[in-house]
Design a protein that fits this description.
Chain lengths: ~450, ~475
């Protein structure tokens, strides 16, 4: 960290400048234009520093950007990769690895006018209108942001998912990211559009080996059309040496419903931002989060519940635990725009501090510019209830098992919001493992 | 009072005077220093107050630190930059009764009109008053009775002359001169304020009270208050403030330091009613205040209660450092804003000692086109085993052009802490309004009743007479905000 130190003056994040822009020549003109616009913006916006409120607790300089080289654009794999244990549960499975990507149609839903799952490059040709309208589209409120623009300009794998009007895919799409090559920066980009009255489930799973040092900068955009239902769950199980910056955006139109679960269990340093705009009357958003920082893990999450329209509803529940030298930060904002009346917004952040040396911070905020509404938030901190522990021990459980049980119970409220049973089971396993014997 | 009323010169003659009845100007001959700020002015202030040499040096050091500080911009308030060279830092009434002279009759009438008894009398006998007019304390009542118990209650200037060793020991020990921009400015130029010292084991028999009045034009008020409660002592202190109604803004930058030793308790109550400016945001006081208490000894307690209904801009975070084991910090606040007022207020509770606990109850009411923000921090350090905090901050919105923001920060660094935080923002409840109105009460009174209920948790913490005053004050302020 000598020459390439990050500072507010530098236009570029180390490693991400003109020379590292992905080869653009053979891409559709639409994507070229979008990337160029994003790059121009990325260059304009000052890099965040630890003096910015949002980054005060996670110094941008703690990301060793200079140690990473952006991964090359991914091409299709010749052969199907070994199937994962959950593949059969989904209509479509997308596998992404260092070698390339593969899209597998389990239910015969691709092609024709049913479900669309293809690369952004293909989509820019087949569905240019949608890509034009939604990529870097209206979900991007409160712009510009350095890392959103960076993700838009530099993504090395872009995926487009589209459920046409009135289609229903409750099994939905699984995207598996498995990266192993140390020293590379991976930049997945996802655009998902759910048409009018349609229903779609998307699950994402990120993993890397414990020893691989990786940087991931992910950017997602979700759109739920009129009366649509979008269920999204992402399970982040990166190895212990992975850095992750995530910039995620969702927008719900009239009568739409977004259910969005973020499960953060892996990685060394994670800095995630989730914005959900309930943008038209009767739109609903249910945002849930689970995080568990142990060892030296650092998890910083920021959520924005944006009520840009009257008669909208949002409900947020983020639950976290810290242990060892883990440090978690939750920053939440409910923002009601002028005129956004009859809004009902709720935000709850519960924190378990399981051992001395661990630390949890919470900054739940409200910014209200309208009058006829109801917004509230709550935050709690504490260890497990000694009475409950005593009760379980008096029934013959060891202290370790009793503690594990209570931690599981604490998280169950969020786990129950995950759409797939196997993913729920996986998270329970992770939590159990992280509790270990020492809790 | 009606016969004396006409003798007061009213600067504006509109209906607004009714609303802010403290908006008059008193015609008192003043001893003033020229506008502007430099080392000579600071030396002059120090000389006027006949301060010891070390105090002058202390002020100059603070001034040098202030010059190096950046102008704070983080609060959710907007105003044109303050021209610190266009402010008069010292203005005191010429006739000083404390130095053997007679009290200026105009001054006596001013405090009479404000309802502040500067001469001892039976009415409000339970309160000892220190009255500060611009840069000078002009009267302190009940001093002999207090002195018998060993309690020192006097103005800061007198304390510096009569008890320099005590002042030197405690001044700046809670809010160091370089703490923040306005604290540094205050440390350099502070004029008067109160000094209270409650010796070991003494329970102060009356409420101590300081009344701050800004009168002179283009003057800033930089009060400095220091309250020390020794082992096992108890004191309840009340502060009130008003200012004339003027078109330009005036700066009030105070520093208040509270120190509670083992087993001591300090209860600090404020009713702040500075002039808030008119409908267009013209004029009003900038209220940039640093207030901090330090629970130094075990089992000590510091409690802040504030009712903030005035000032064009408020920037104020009465805080408690809970260092002694088992110490208790409390913050009860009602902040009301209307017209174009801006308030960014809240508290900090820093838990250091074991078994420390803190309570924060904040009620914000925004009306008109005002901006009302709560900003608070609860910090539990690793040493604060079994620390406990409960925070509840509620905001009520009256009208559709006002803003309500809540910015809490909670940091927990021990697994033994229990922290609960809750906040709500909502419109005044339609059901409640309907219910009260259906019982034959008009909308304005109904609103007032509901707002009163909303603030009850805070008002009940105020000393009795003050509580009644605060309720009346809020009613008066609400009168022009409904509809």
């Amino acid at each position: 960290m000598t020459t390439a130190q990050l500072s507010a003056e530098s236009a570029f994040i180390p490693g991400f400048d003109e020379s590292s822009l992905p080869a653009n020549g053979n891409q559709p003109a639409l994507l070229q234009a979008k990337r160029a616009a994003a790059f121009a913006q990325y260059r304009e916006v000052p890099a965040p520093t630890a003096r910015d409120d949002e980054w005060r607790r996670t110094d941008p300089a703690s990301f060793p950007f200079e140690r990473f080289v952006p991964a090359a654009a991914l091409g299709p794999l010749e052969e199907a990769p070994t199937p994962g244990p959950w593949d059969s549960e989904f209509d479509v499975v997308v596998s992404v690895s260092d070698a390339g990507f593969h899209i597998k149609d389990n239910a015969g839903v691709l092609g024709g006018d049913k479900l669309v799952v293809e690369t952004l490059a293909d989509a820019a040709i087949h569905h240019s209108e949608l890509v034009e309208r939604y990529l870097q589209g209206p979900a991007r409120v409160k712009q510009p942001r350095k890392f959103s623009s960076l993700g838009d300009a530099f993504w090395n794998f872009g995926l487009f998912i589209y459920a046409p009007a009135r289609s229903v895919f409750t099994r939905g799409v699984l995207i598996r990211y498995h990266h192993t090559r140390s020293g590379q920066a991976v930049l997945p980009r996802l655009l998902a559009v759910v048409g009018e009255q349609a229903e779609l489930t998307i699950a994402e799973y990120y993993e890397s080996p414990e020893t691989a040092e990786l940087l991931a900068i992910s950017t997602r955009e979700f759109y739920a059309g009129k009366g649509a239902v979008l269920r999204a769950a992402s399970l982040q199980e990166w190895g212990a040496r992975t850095f992750h910056i995530g910039e995620d955006w969702a927008r719900a139109e009239r009568d739409a419903r977004v259910e969005w679960v973020t499960l953060l269990l892996g990685g060394l340093v994670s800095k995630m931002m989730v914005t959900c705009d309930v943008s038209e009357p009767n739109a609903n958003a249910y945002l849930s989060g689970l995080f568990f920082a142990n060892d030296n893990q650092h998890v910083d999450q920021r959520t924005l519940q944006l009520h840009s329209s009257p008669n909208t509803y949002s409900n947020l529940l983020y639950k976290g635990a810290v242990k060892d030298h883990g440090h978690s930060i939750y920053q939440g904002i409910i923002d009601a725009s002028p005129g956004a009346i009859k809004v009902d917004a709720y935000q709850m952040n519960n924190n378990l501090i399981l051992s001395e040396g661990a630390r949890a911070d919470s900054l739940p905020g409200l910014e209200i510019d309208a009058d006829d509404l109801k917004c509230s938030h709550g935050a709690t901190f504490g260890n497990l209830d000694p009475n409950q522990l005593f009760y379980l021990q008096s029934r013959g459980l060891t202290k370790g098992v009793a503690r594990q049980l209570l931690v599981m119970a604490f998280f169950e409220e969020v786990i129950a919001r995950v759409p797939h049973e196997f993913m729920r089971e996986r998270v329970r396993e992770d939590v159990r493992r992280k509790c270990g014997d020492s809790v | 009072m009606s016969d004396t009323e006409t003798t007061f010169k009213l600067e504006t003659d509109s209906a607004l005077v009714q609303e802010y009845k403290y908006g008059f100007v008193s015609d008192v001959e003043a001893d003033q220093l020229p506008k502007g700020l430099n080392e000579d002015i600071i030396r002059a202030i120090s000389a006027k107050k006949k301060e010891p040499e070390w105090m002058t040096e202390w002020r100059l050091k603070a001034y040098r630190r202030w010059q190096k500080k950046d102008y704070p911009k983080w609060a959710k308030v907007e105003y044109p930059p303050v021209d610190f060279q266009d402010i008069r830092y010292y203005s005191a009434p010429k006739m000083n009764p404390k130095e053997g002279g007679e009290i200026d009759p105009e001054l006596a009438r001013t405090f009479e009109k404000l309802g502040i008894p500067i001469e001892e009398r039976n009415h409000l006998a339970g309160v000892a008053v220190d009255a500060v007019f611009d840069s000078m304390s002009i009267a302190t009542t009940h001093r002999e009775m207090l002195a018998e118990k060993g309690i020192i209650f006097c103005s800061m200037s007198e304390a510096l002359q009569q008890h320099p060793e005590l002042v030197r020991k405690y001044l700046g020990s809670v809010v160091p001169p370089g703490d923040n921009f306005y604290a540094a400015l205050n440390s350099a130029v502070f004029s008067d304020g109160s000094f209270c010292f409650i010796p070991k084991g003494v329970r102060c028999p009356v409420e101590l009270s300081t009344y701050f009045r800004i009168n002179a034009k283009d003057t800033g008020q930089f009060e400095r208050t220091l309250i020390v409660a020794e082992e096992g002592a108890y004191v309840s202190y009340i502060e009130g403030c008003t200012a004339p109604q003027r078109d330009n803004n005036q700066l009030h930058a105070a520093v208040v330091e509270l120190i509670a030793m083992e087993g001591a308790e300090i209860k600090y109550s404020t009713v702040q009613n500075w002039y808030a400016g008119d409908e267009n945001g013209q004029g009003g006081i900038y209220n940039f205040v640093t207030k901090r208490g330090h629970c130094r000894g075990a089992n000590s307690k510091i409690s802040w209660t504030q009712v903030e209904v005035g000032a064009a801009i408020t920037w104020k975070y009465p805080s408690v450092i809970l260092e002694g084991d088992n110490s208790v910090g409390e913050f009860y606040s009602v902040a009301f804003t209307n017209k174009k007022m801006q308030a960014d207020t809240g508290t900090k509770m820093i838990h250091i000692g074991k078994n420390t606990s803190s309570t924060i109850i904040s009620k914000g009411i925004s009306a008109g086109e005002s901006v009302n923000s709560y900003r608070g921090m609860v910090r539990i350090l690793p040493s604060a085993l079994n620390a406990r905090n409960h925070t509840c901050c509620d905001s009520m919105l009256i009208g559709d052009k006002c803003f309500a923001n809540t910015y809490p920060v909670i940091e927990a660094e021990t697994s033994t802490a229990i922290i609960e935080h809750e906040a709500t923002t909502s419109k005044i409840s339609e059901e409640q309004l309907f219910y009260v109105q259906s019982r034959g009460i008009d909308e304005e009174s109904a609103t007032s009743l509901i707002v009163n209920g909303f603030c009850r948790d805070v008002f009940k913490e105020l000393p009795m007479e003050f509580s009644v005053e605060a309720i009346k004050l809020l009613e008066l302020k609400l009168e022009h905000s409904v509809g």
